[in-house]
Amino acid sequence: MVPASVVPPQPPDPPSKPVPAKDSATVALVRDADGSGVEVFLQRRVRTMAFASGMTVFPGGGVDARDADASVGWVGPPATLWARWFSCSEPLARALVCAVVREAFEESGVLLAGTASTVVSDTSVFADARRALISGELSLAKFLSDAGLMLRADLLRPWANWVTPEDEPRRYDARFFVAALPEGQTADGATTEAESTYWQRPADAIADAEAGRAALMPPTWHTLTEIGRFASVKDVLACERTIRRIMPRLVWNGDRVVVEL
């Protein structure tokens, strides 16, 4: 159960029929914290956003049609394996992995790409490409091809599948990934979608939500709780996951909302 204070209010007029859920992908970037445990990279979304305004989230977004481009250079588990993990078609699995790599780069500057033997450590040389990706002028496949890079699917791990409740006007079928911050790279706040970005221990992020200093949606809250149990990034990445589709229900109990998973 998640406290009502961390979920958005129920829409006054829910759709008469559920809106189709748009495929999307999000990634919890993790790094080892000083002492023990891990930190996650979080963004507080600007309040002008149509979805999850003001919420604290992980980088991510909707799948673009061009994310399914099969020509993208690829290192790591093939799309067939991602399709098995996320219980979806192979083309969608490929698009989800490409989308999460693209969104991570657009929203945080972290690029999960490289050659077959190395991972990019300096992303500053791709600043122009990042802007072109954000504007839609450039596809991920074209960017990687022009830069002589390949997508590094081996840096990602499948984590969860959360679907927006049926009574919401905007719905997403979101696949959650985890990835370690690549050595030498820096996650930044250079995105118009966030008013602030920061690294934080999962327990501290949850404490902020409980104290009313931040707002978390149920999937973010749940993911932070799970990641916070691990002592290191190595342990997070080694965790074997069975992905099941979770669609929370928002149930009104008097003047409070109870989230049922």
Query: N-to-C SSE series?
Result: EEEEEHHEHHEEEEHHHEEE
Task: Estimate the global geometry from the Cα principal axes.
Answer: globular
Number of domains: 1
What is the tally of helical segments? 7
According to DSSP, the number of beta strands is 13
Radius of gyration over alpha carbons? 18 Å
Average residue-wise pLDDT: 89
Residue stretches low in confidence (pLDDT < 50, at least 5 long) are 1-11
User: Judging by the overall fold, what is the CATH architecture?
Assistant: Alpha-Beta Complex
Can you walk me through this structure?
- Residues 20-222 form the Nudix hydrolase domain.
- Residues 1-22 are annotated as: Disordered.
- This protein is of the alpha+beta class.
- The chain has a single domain, classed as Nucleoside Triphosphate Pyrophosphohydrolase, CATH 3.90.79.10.
- The protein has helices at 79-86, 90-108, 127-135, 140-147, 202-210, 218-227, 233-238; strands at residues 22-32, 38-45, 56-57, 60-62, 74-75, 113-114, 150-152, 156-163, 172-180, 194-200, 245-246, 249-253, 256-260.
- Strands 1, 2, 3, 4, 8, 9, 10 and 11 form an eight-stranded mixed β-sheet that branches.
- Helix 1 (79-86) crosses helix 2 and helix 5 (202-210) runs antiparallel to helix 6.
- Mean pLDDT is 89; it is low at 1-11.
